[in-house]
Amino acid sequence: MPHAPPPYSDIFDELLTEDVEELLGRFQLSDSVRYEVFADIWRQMCFSDVFRGIPSLAELKRFSRVTLATAVNYFLPPFSYQIRVGGLYLMFAFYHTQLCRPPVRIRLALKDWIYIKKFLGDSADAGHSDVLYIYRKLDAAKAFYYTAMPHVLAFQKQRKPKKAAVCAKFLGRATAVHELMCADILEELGNLQVHYEQLKEACPEVKGQVAMTHRDLASRLTDCMSEFISWQQRSFSSLGVKRKKAVDEDGEEESDSSRARLLSSIKQKSYSCYQEAPKSRRHRQAETVESLSCGAEQLQDPPARQKKRPPSLRARTQRSLGESREDSWTQTWLLSVPEQKERLPVRSTKQPAAQYA
Amino acid sequence: MAAAYPNTNIPDYEYAEVNTKPFHIGSFRQEWMNRLEPTEYSYQQQDEDTFHANFAEETGVGAETLAELKSICSIDSLRCHPEDEQPDMEVVPPNPTLKTLIQRKKRQDYRASLKVTKNRHDIYADELERLTAGKRPEDVTDLIPEGEVILTINVYYPAVFEKFTYNRSHMTLLMTGSHSLAELRDAICCVSDLQVCGEFSNTPDVAPDFISKDHYKSAFFFFEGVFYNDMRFPECQDISKTTMEWAKARNFPSFTQAKMEDTRMADLKVKVGFPYLYCHQGDCEHLVIITDVRLSHRSDCLDRKLFPLLTHKHRIVTQKCAVCHLFIGRWFTTDDHFAPSDPCLFCDKCFRMLHYDAQGNKLGDFLAYPYVDRGAFN
């Protein structure tokens, strides 16, 4: 090739990522994990056209690799369950609509296998047969390469890493706090605390002088956790995502882990009782996508913003002395340049040239 | 869900997106074997009915649900245009809505206004891969077994090649875990192996009796602090000894040695994406990077005899004769009064025509050396 393509061109393409995030955004708004809905959005956006118009075979192969790498990216954590399902459907769609023959395969790395297994286990428990069916179909078509790492590495380090800013609204919510709440750790902690206090009381020389722990550790922990949970619900419900009914189902007779709680909220939408989204929701979708995408942009830093330079000594001095900048601007034009500096270009800024003052 | 201790057999990044920590190839393969069902890595492809039967058994869905799944989750659901109106895939659609397509359309319109000929590198980029993909051996014993690990190795130009030292790979080889390093060494072709030493202006017809490859047979690979020497032939010396002694004298961590022919690829403990060294001819050094390690797949070339498999070879422009500009230069002259420059390159015909008379006597005073062009392996 006349010039080598930039590194990372094989795994990330900005415009494609934007298109994919648009698709996944619509899928997220539909509030469903059904393949039908995904296929509908895919057809609406005419997404299989994304492979059209590529002049050379080499470029087509490279682009197919990029599409599959992007899809796998959304299939793995830290995204929410729904986005991960969207990533799986995207893998299926890109694999079967690509134009390369023989087709480019999907790379699954060993370190990600545990997350994939967990994802499939969760889907099976929740009864999402179409998720499993799509995965098994890809497997049967021998679409996977079982690799060491997700991308081919050739010791190329990018000077300006061109990584996609993770779309905040796609991220899965942290469930660690929920899991801590329902595990019996806090109860045990309280019991241990009581036991410790009792032992301390029993030794007259120690009591009252030594304190290894906070007395109210358990209660403070519980307070922190409930604060976090309520913040999480507030901030995520404001983005328009449907509130998971994790808290409401607290009193129900359920298995211990919050994983089951989270899944039960999706369980009601399992394959056999799928319902069409109401027509009103469909009309609203188009508007909310734009507003949300604006919101997402605010969350991400605009990449082209120039670095702000720190204020100069002069500016800082003036600020501390309380002078306003406008008053002290005296435009000193250099009428005579010192001889040795005659050939130096004179600064053409509005600020007075301090070194000649 | 994380393991209690980090499992070093699962490769992970040492520097993100650059290279991994060292891991043992054989153990990595074993980790995948522990996790996968045999059907997942086998070469056999299930037919549809078996697939549906297995799926129904695994998930316990009813026949009706299965039929529904079959019709909804089919490839036809991804079709964006009606079947009888398949669009032209080489042209961007007229009113694109996707951002990727909008930019591609701009490029297409720009390109249409230029007169650009096809790029030679693009056309031949995948040629080698296409030739060998999916090949099966005639003899079943030569078939690469299922679940074998395949490594992709990039070998780079030696450091003395000013042009392409840092990022263009000279050749890409595929190797299996059961091949040895000696086989990898034999597959690496470098022009310095073909160099002929000696001045031949007086005897241009005498075929040189040796090339450097036959004369200097020693070579070594350096992976993760171990020098793998080639000891197959009695002439081979241990050229890594000097480096090892030097390192010991200067308080470096000690290096160890092993034999190239006894080490299989699966025995290596290496980092993926990290540069290592191959040294031959005493001072011709090549960077070697293992770019990818994965399990074998049914679409790979499965004939063991064809490995190490060359999947990519960089074609370098050859230097032509200074007189005819047609043939590749084979003679290199210095101190030559007939030549326009010092040094000068000639093809065989022009060389003999210029420097020797009809009887084969040497005319004038010059020094001539046989020259092997860098593009000799094109």
UniProtKB/TrEMBL annotation, chain B:
Alphabetical keyword list: DNA-binding, Nucleus, Transcription, Transcription regulation
BP-aspect Gene Ontology terms: snRNA transcription by RNA polymerase II; snRNA transcription by RNA polymerase III
Function: Part of the SNAPc complex required for the transcription of both RNA polymerase II and III small-nuclear RNA genes. Binds to the proximal sequence element (PSE), a non-TATA-box basal promoter element common to these 2 types of genes. Recruits TBP and BRF2 to the U6 snRNA TATA box.
Protein name, as recorded: snRNA-activating protein complex subunit 3
Subunit structure: Part of the SNAPc complex composed of 5 subunits: SNAPC1, SNAPC2, SNAPC3, SNAPC4 and SNAPC5. SNAPC3 interacts with SNAPC1.
Species, as recorded: Acanthochromis polyacanthus (spiny chromis)
Subcellular location: Nucleus
Keyword Zinc-finger: no
Major localization class: nucleus
Similarity remark: Belongs to the SNAPC3/SRD2 family.
